[in-house]
Design a protein that fits this description.
The protein is of the alpha+beta class and 151 residues long. The chain has one domain (2-148): 2-Layer Sandwich (TATA-Binding Protein), CATH 3.30.310. Helix content is 21%, strand content 40%. The radius of gyration is 15 Å and the shape is globular.
């Protein structure tokens, strides 16, 4: 149920956003049920179970060990990846802070409301937002948003 709760709204959002560009090709994989779309200008996304990282995912942004990626989207403005973990939002968020700051990312903002932690990092001309939320089962859902700065 947790997977469905996360992926249905995301699928609707992705598909609605994909319609803003050129013609969109939406397909459902009959084997695993994942939904993929390909739009104009390099737009691509997938929602479902065990989604693969986009080919253009930056090599200096690690993916949390044991993460189950449930959504990955590439649009002109950047890349988003949503994953689930059995670890808490605090554990995942702290792991990202340690790894990112060690590899040259600068933390620019932080917001913690208990069930959700949002941290914003910059490196060069890129911004990375790490937003981890606590799930009902004690695990977490984490959204990574990678985007070039528009300065």
């Amino acid at each position: 149920m947790r997977r469905l709760t996360l992926t249905l709204p995301l699928a609707a959002l992705i598909l609605a956003g994909a319609g803003c560009g050129a013609a969109t090709n939406v397909q459902t994989n009959p084997v695993n049920g994942n939904v993929t779309y390909n739009g104009g200008a390099g737009e691509h996304g997938e929602v479902g179970a065990n989604v693969q990282l986009p080919e253009n995912w930056p090599s200096d942004v690690p993916i949390y060990a044991g993460a189950n990626i449930v959504s990955a989207t590439t649009i002109a403005q950047g890349i988003s990846v949503l994953f689930q973990s059995s670890d808490s939002a605090a554990t995942v968020s702290d792991w990202y802070q340690a790894r990112l700051t060690a590899s040259g990312w600068m933390k620019k903002a932080e917001h913690d409301i208990g069930i959700q932690r949002v941290r914003v990092y910059e490196k060069g001309d890129v911004t990375l937002t790490v937003s981890s939320s606590t799930a009902d089962d004690g695990g977490s859902a984490t959204l990574l948003l990678w985007a070039p700065n528009s300065r």
